[in-house]
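request received
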Amino acid sequence: MSEVFALSPYQPYPDCFDELVDSDGNARPQALPIARFISQKGEEELVRRQQQLDATIQSMGVSFTVYSDSQNIDRSWPLDVVPRTISSTEWKRTSDGLKQRLQALNLFINDLYNDQRILKDKIVPAELILHSKNFLAPCQGMTPAHGAWAHICGTDLVRDQDGQFYVLEDNLRVPSGVSYMLENRTVMKRVFPELFAESTIYPVDDYPHQLWKTLASLSPRQDITPVVVVLTPGIYNSAYFEHSYLAQQMGCYLAENSDLYVDNDKVYLRTLRGPRQVDVIYRRVDDIFIDPEVFRKDSVLGIKGLVRAWKAGNVAIANAPGSGVADDKVVYAFVPKIIEYYLSEKPLIDNVPTYLCMDDKEREYVLANLDKLVVKPANESGGYGILIGPRATDEERAKCAEAVKANPRNFIAQPTLNLSTAPTLCDGVLEPRHLDLRPFILQGAELYCTTGGLSRVALRRGSLVVNSSQGGGSKDTWIINDEG
Amino acid sequence: MLARVAENVYWMGRYLERIDDTARLINATTHMLIDSHKDTRFSWPVLINVLGEDNRRFISEGGSSERTVMHYLIAAEDSPASIRFSCTQVRANARCVREVIPRDIWEEVNSLNQFMQAECTQASSRRKRYNLMVEVVRRCQMVIGVMDGTMLRDDAYRLFNIGRHLERADMTTRIMDVLILQQLTPAMGHQGRREIQWNAVLNALGGVESYQRYYAREEGDSDVIDFLLTYKAFPRSIVYCLDKMQNEAKLLPRADSLLQTIEKLRKELDSEPLTQLSTHDLHSLIDDLQAGLIDIHTALISDSLHTPTR
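response:
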């Protein structure tokens, strides 16, 4: 196995880890089939395949929505033609770490809404949790089935210069993107049938079944096949494509608020053939909007009495209301301690070093080093409100400093990482582009982690912002068997 | 199936059929006009008439050339009669019901819409237009074919079929009516056969050969009108469409009033002596049929699909 393939003329950045080639520009073992393909067929062939791929995505109707784009509610999903490869050995280690993390987070959430041992033991500061708007008091005293609150978690992983995976954030509310992971694979199989024949690429398509199994394991009526519903805000939501896709793939109902009602603490679906009792709701709606009786009394959205039905044990809600308490960038900083506290294990995947602005010393450091750090609000998603210090203007940094001083609890800072790169087809030429990885982890009766995940790519040269709403693209993620 | 999305499936069926029928009609009339004598009273705006009252304003505004009429029926984004508009609608409805249809159907509907949005402006020359319409019909048949081969025979499938056949029956009456209004009075040819322009009607309905076989079998007693209205074996006849709707409706919940309206229309047709109708009588019969079809639509929407609260 001394086959060496330089992916010339591709030039990786000298100070970044590249997913496909090593620092000499030679293909890593798991990337050899692709490297061979590219060197035999050339970039022109890649361009042709990219066109074929774009056309396939168009006709499959794989789309996403950008709210600012009022003309066009469906935009074609951007997928780069070059896959990202990871060896199965490395992936096994990583997925064990992700499962460990979700298990600990669920123990943590359950503890917070019950005995609060971790607060009493002062591992996590009590005021951090009790003053958080994500701590939903009405959920206290609940222990959902299997002690699991966050049943579906999307964890963002990044690699730094050293090539190690780090957890960047845990998305425990309504993480999205898994349908794109699945569709990316469907498209790639159509466009590169020969590569799938040549190497052992692990399949990803059991996710919908695993998701269904996880949801079904939460059903209060274990003696019958449960009625499972995906709850969507509707056709104008940015993730509507995914909601309908998952409902279709699991063969379950896709409901909006108005399709559900609560009677005698049970939830019913209005079907053409009359009411049908619902056992499990996979909600893709923020928890504070699910029940106007409880969380947002001014809200016109939601299903009146849903939380009562949930607390009575007549319906399961995934993710459980209140799970968001652990989806907070300040809580994130405590996750390594949380893992050790509940599992007595060392974390298998590290956090990115994080400075808490609520801590006087750390805040001082952050304010003095704004030009080196990335500052993030604790409660935003989608890449909004982030300051990338080294690339910001003086004015932007000054504004950020004011915001941090005014509300320190609301901010964290991290060193600017040299995110790893992968060769990406840009105007017909392969160039390095930064990327991250979002695997999806499930917890019901069992723990499950996707094979790989959704790789998101920042398509602008040098950019670190991978969100599709902000010009990001995606790559298919291939976990390649290297264990023989 | 959810009560909320039931109507989307029904409309999907209607719009898909409308696309198919409109494309057929456009090609059939173009054929006829190429063949017909210069002094024919037939003119392009007739086509707009076929597609309903709402579109008459367009005619009064003076758009009567082949080019403007065709634009209005094929590519105009703001014309509710255009194929392009119907394609947008069929996709929008499919998008709301993706969870009840297999993904192959979604892909076919989606690519039909993409094809139409991209190609509809290419219909300037007659030759290109002909090919475009043939392709549209083919793609509609593709959707139907995938549906036939993969979709569960459940309420969604039934509603889709009711939508298709209601639209089809409506289109058959419209096409007949306008040609009559244009005083293309069925001329009695040899052996009582109504000829010439009726061929255009049959053409638009894909029924030329079927009619020949029917005629041979029926020994010349019956004419095109009878064939189009009551011949059970012809899939675009009114009776065929009513029977199909009835069969599907029998399996739906709360279908009593729907079934009654279908039955009532069926009886009306049975009681009419169709062979010797004057142009005027035929016109008023068609008016009655169209009113009956609207009643069926109303019964479906307000009785069968109306959500019972609790």
